[in-house]
Amino acid sequence: MQTLREFTRKTKRGNILKIVREHYLRDDIGCGSDICQHCFQNDVYALTADHDLQSSLFKYPHYLVLDTNVVLDQIDVLEEDVLRNVIILTTVLNEVKHKSSSIYKRINEIIHDRRRNFYVFVNEHHKDTYADREPDETANDRNDRAIRIATKWYDNHLKSSQVSKSFQRSGRQVTRVVLLTDDAGNRAKAEAEDILVATASEYVKSLSDHPLLADKLSHKTFANEKQALPQYPPHLSLREILEGLKQKKLLQGSFQASRENYLEGNVNVEQYEKGILIQGRESLNRAVDGDIVAIELLPQSEWSAPSEIVLEEKNVYADDLPSEERTEEEKVMLQQVRAAAVVDAERTPTGRIVGIVRRKWRQYCGILQPSLIEDTSRHIFVPADRKIPRIRIETRQAATLQNQRIIVTIDNWPRNSRYPHGHFVRSLGPLGDMNTENEVILLEHDVPHCKFSEEVLSFLPKMPWTITPEDYAKRVDLRDLYICSVDPPGCTDIDDALHCRELENGNLEVGVHIADVSHFIRPGNALDKEAAARGTTVYLVGKRIDMVPELLSSNLCSLVGGVERFAFSCVWEMDKEANIIKKRFHKSVIKSKRAMTYEEAQVLIDDSTQDNEIAKSLRHLNRLAKILKKRRMDNGALVLASPEIRFQVDSETHEPLEVEVKQLRDTNSMVEEFMLLANISVAEHIAAEFSECAVLRRHPKPPTTNFDPLIKAARYQGFEIETETGLSLSHSLDKCVKADNPYFNTMIRILTTRCMMQAVYFISGSLQKEEFFHYGLAAPIYTHFTSPIRRYSDIMVHRLLAASIGADSTYAQLLERKSNEELCHNLNYRHKMAQYAGRASVGLNTHLFFRGKEEDEEGYVLFVRKNALQVLIPKYGLEGTLYLKTDKDGKDGHERAKSTVVFTFSEEDHTQRCGNVVFHSFDPVTVRLSLDSSNVQHEKLVFRLVKPYIKGFSVETGSESAADVAAPPPTKKTKKNQKKK
């Protein structure tokens, strides 16, 4: 049967367009129930009699129909393997898809799990359940009516199937259909129409066999919530916000909470380079890190400056009070913030948050705060991320969860509540367990790490996989070349290999061969979409989260030795001085002759008795690489540094056994040079072929002010740093050498790294050519081509390169600038999160390594802060903070110091002075390292000063005297595991 659907749509110009479409209704759509005697079901029943729930509200067999808000708000409940025999109407599914893509994905995963008995009923195309829109009826009211019509039809339809004599003889109770809705209006209309109805909360709490399921309910307000007085100013409505933005009375941006100060944050606004400062609880006005907010700029006389002090909320059990009755503790802290913000600091634009444009809430990891009240179900959740406020939840299993890492999500944040309201989602595992802590790192850094779905895996090649004659015909056969790979120890995702051979004309042929991952991942399928969403492989200590399934990353795409593999080759003809004569790109078949570690390759190069083809190839490559590197340096490329450490991990417990600084050899540099050259060559080619949509990578030049700390620190040591160009900076860094401190140049370069901007992916058509420049590499153009197993950007580049040489066809999205810009935005985010997750993993393992230990180690002052020294420990390649300022009780955070110990900070030359001892950047110190586990969620490595000795502040070792106050720098002898007297 045919009917017509009419609806209106607003065009970009603001015109209202009336659209009429044909809509077909059918009478052969099955209800999916095994008790139905009317519908043709193909013997496949989603709704069965095997999963009757025992509800105290509905004491008979029943199916559930969910309205849209129940799916959107209670998805955590629905994901529990409790609710069965659930009917999802297409009206609801379409609304969910429109309102939340993430929840739409989650409900679809439940629907496709056949064990859950969720059935999608196509009510919009069933002749008895379709609801045409009535005059003056809103879309929301029409959808609510369609849900009620479908629910009533289902109930009557099933009742008519259960009146037969055979059914009555079976002795079974009649199965009914219940609507779950949290909409009061919809519920009232359903009751008036004799539909069985309940709220999600009522129904879940009626399941006596599953009392803990109620913990997962989303709460708009808590049960028995007292109506407290307002804590915060009201938010403007969306209409008021839009009007304020239009009149430029308000500004919009992304809110970033401070990690160090819970009463402070910043809003990134386009017009203001450093953003807008937000200070104070009322000004923060219930914004959570990541939210898109509307702000009102304060008069310039009320501008402030970021505080230099660390503030952590302590009184987490304070009753909700109006602003005029705030606790004295909070008033004092806010005064400290504002006082510290204006002393010796330049005021910055300051504002207050007046509305929320879009929430960016997610699931948060953390722990329950031990409650001071016995037998209470209301608790405070403390997130692992210091930027997230504490969250109030209701749970009946607090005793079980006390020593667990748990996940909580925010439901809402009323004006009258000091903290947002949320609900328990699930437990991750015991606090301190390695698997649990790794899971926290992945979740907190938004790293997709669930198993690859069956749909994704279905697009992998079927095993056993072999290269066919057709494949050989389409590719250049390079199996006879002496190609080899050089990688870190234990590497299984080998995505690059090299070769070099002499040509008859005396020149050299050099090839970089990259795994042809794009051959196996075709555009637009589920495997491609998953790889694009993940963006990058994430490396934790002893653990790897692959971007693509292991069959590709460690098998079919990995260029292991002695096995034929598909590659994308970049081949140059060079003269003996590494000048490029010719270059070509082609897809190939290679057979790596050997997979080596950096150390093995170095040994082969250095062993003059070795004269085989691989050894000769490596020596040629190594010699050319040194020429290429010198050329880059002469052009202004920077050699930067960062403290990197490697852990030896126990294969069974996965706990760190030993820690060491990563060693770099000539072979590391050799591989790096040819990867850089390949990336530059490919960037030049695809930018010439696709001027509007080439995927490139840029590194912006830092603002001059970024270099101020570096310039001051070097000047004190007698060196001048020139920062006008990359070349002048490079030459300045080369001159920073001290005969008595071999680590000095490395520290200078570490400081320089901290001054740099973040490198980012972009689309060529979005910027002018002069903006393509990569500052760190001194390259006018650059991209990523050489690691497609672990970076999706490289897959995009491979597709562009393949299309340009006719090795593969183009497709619409490949040449679409807007979609590629969105992909680049995601890749930049995923790359940043992967870096942070890797650092967090190193931090976790560092803490585990130092648990139960005390070690005295030699270090150097990297930065001098207003209340601390940032100290680098070369042996372990780690940094830590040595706090200097003391509070009114005479504590500096790790040791009680006498009131006579006073440190004075000099803003002019960035020094700290205590008596005759003066600390400058790069000064040597000896510190005692130990782990402070008093805060079970935020363990920290504590640095305490050993030398130079300051009486009343330094660690007492028994050998110090008053003469040690101005002690010389520490000797090379290191004291370990000494006990405090």
Number of domains: 5
What is the CA-CA span between the terminal residues?
91 Å
Strand content: 15-25%
The best one-word shape is globular
Low-confidence segments, given as residue ranges, are 317-326, 886-899, 959-981
Summed over residues and divided by their number, the pLDDT gives a mean of 85
The major beta sheet can be summarized as: 5 strands, parallel
Amount of helix: 25-40%
Number of helices: 25
Radius of gyration equals 33 Å
Strand order of the largest sheet: 5-4-3-6-7
Q: Indicate the structural class.
A: alpha+beta
Q: Work out the number of β strands.
A: 38
Key traits:
about 1000 residues; alpha+beta; Rossmann fold; OB fold (Dihydrolipoamide Acetyltransferase, E2P); disordered C terminus; 3'-5'-RNA exonuclease activity; RNA-binding; nuclease
What does this structure look like?
With 981 residues, this protein is α+β, with helices and mostly antiparallel strands. It is 28% helix and 24% strand. Strands 5-4-3-6-7 form a five-stranded parallel beta sheet. It has a five-stranded mixed barrel with strand order 8-9-10-12-11. A hairpin with a 4-residue loop joins β34 and β35. The model is unreliable at 317-326, 886-899 and 959-981 (pLDDT under 50).
Please outline the helices and strands.
Elements: E1 2-10, E2 16-24, E3 62-66, H1 68-73, H2 75-78, E4 86-89, H3 90-99, H4 101-111, E5 118-121, H5 139-161, H6 165-169, E6 176-180, H7 184-192, E7 196-198, H8 200-205, H9 238-246, E8 251-257, E9 264-269, E10 272-279, H10 281-284, E11 292-297, H11 328-342, E12 350-358, E13 363-368, E14 378-383, E15 391-394, H12 398-401, E16 404-412, E17 421-430, H13 434-444, H14 454-457, H15 469-474, E18 476-477, E19 484-487, E20 496-502, E21 508-515, H16 526-534, E22 538-540, E23 543-545, H17 550-556, E24 564-574, E25 580-591, E26 594-597, H18 598-606, H19 613-634, E27 645-649, E28 656-661, H20 666-689, E29 695-698, H21 708-716, H22 726-735, H23 744-754, E30 760-763, H24 792-804, H25 817-850, E31 854-864, E32 868-873, E33 878-883, E34 904-906, E35 911-914, E36 917-919, E37 924-932, E38 940-947
Parallel strand pairs: 3-4, 3-6, 4-5, 6-7, 10-12, 18-25, 19-26
Antiparallel strand pairs: 1-2, 8-9, 8-11, 9-10, 11-12, 13-14, 13-16, 14-15, 16-17, 20-21, 21-24, 22-23, 24-25, 27-28, 29-30, 31-32, 31-37, 32-33, 34-35, 35-36, 37-38
